[in-house]
Structure formats: C-alpha cells, structure tokens
Amino acid sequence: MVQGAFTDQVLAxxxxxxxxxxxxxxxxxxxxxxxxxxxxxVSGDLVGELAAIRDTGRSATVVACTDGAVHRLPKERFxxxxxxxxxxxxxxxxxxxDRLDWANQRRLDFTGYPVDRRLARVVVQLAGRHGHxxxxxxDLGVALTQEELGKLVGAAKESAVKAVRELRDxxxxxxxxxxxxxxxLEGLTEFAxxxx
Length: 196
Prior knowledge:
The chain has 2 domains: 9-102, Jelly Rolls, CATH 2.60.120; 113-192, Arc Repressor Mutant, subunit A (Orthogonal Bundle), CATH 1.10.10. The chain contains 7 helices and 10 strands. By secondary structure, it is an alpha+beta fold. Helix 2 (75-84) crosses helix 3 (86-112). The mean pLDDT is 92. 30% of the residues are buried. Keywords: DNA-binding, Transcription, Transcription regulation.
C-alpha cells in the first residue's frame, strides 16, 4: 500500500506459522521527503480500513518487516461484513480508538518530554504490546532500527541514536541488529514515567 493511492482492498495480517508473526510499518511521508513512522501493525491487525470506509486514498505507506501472511479483502466484501455484523463495527471502532489514543499520546510526549524519555516511553509500550520474554529480559517483538525508533517519537536519527545509547548505558536495554531487549523493564518504566 502506498500513501495517496486509491485501492479497493483491506489487508488482514496474520502469522505465517507460530514462529513468524506478521509485522508491517505504517509510514507517512511529507512533500519535503521527511518521513514519520505512525505505528506498527502485527498479526490480527487490519490495514487500509480507513480508506475503504471513507473512500479516499491511502493515508500512509505500509512496508512489511516480516514475511507474515496477508488476506486481501475487497472493499465491498469488508463493508458488507461490517454492515451485517454490528459487533464488528464496534470492534473496528475500538481498534481505531486505540490507534487514535496512541497517536495522541505521541503528540503529548513530543510536547512534554525530551527525546530519551519519549523513546523510553515508546519502548515500554511496544514491549507491552508486542514483546515476548527472552533470557535476560523482554524482546521488543518488532525489528526496528534506531532511526525508525526516532521516527516513532519525532526525533532525528542522531538524537535517537544518542537516546538509545543513554538507555543502554543505564542498563535498561540491550541492543543488537534491529533488535532491542528490555533488560530492566521496571527501571525503564520508572524513567519513562509510564503508569501501569
């Protein structure tokens, strides 16, 4: 899916087996070439539902970060299902509400916190949503570069790299290639000022 494109399908993401969850990045681009990472979608999520409901072009570009499976639902079939199932409309509204809450929180964080704390807040939230236990901590569950983490919190690459280094030096996280392990979730949560 490409930002601005008009297509007539909704994508439902699902895992390809138990070891390969679906994962896509939702990226918005500006005319000047700048990009922001709006969010991460995983197995069980829908992508493209707003364009189908509003009959508009895509609001973002979607890029796969794993080789999970995708079910393509024609727009008419998707909307027909919703119309026949009021509970599905309520679930969709709840999902969209969760995404709006996430976006609003990012804007609040951008206004009220420095980069290191914004990044810590996102890492805590991603670990809670997508993470899984590993030896010595919690794997974030999604493969992101430090630059992509920066794009999630509205920070330049250099600022994001510095913030990751600070969190790593404090012992709250460990990093590898496109991988973050939260080594001290309690300490990181306290630093991030995230209420549980």
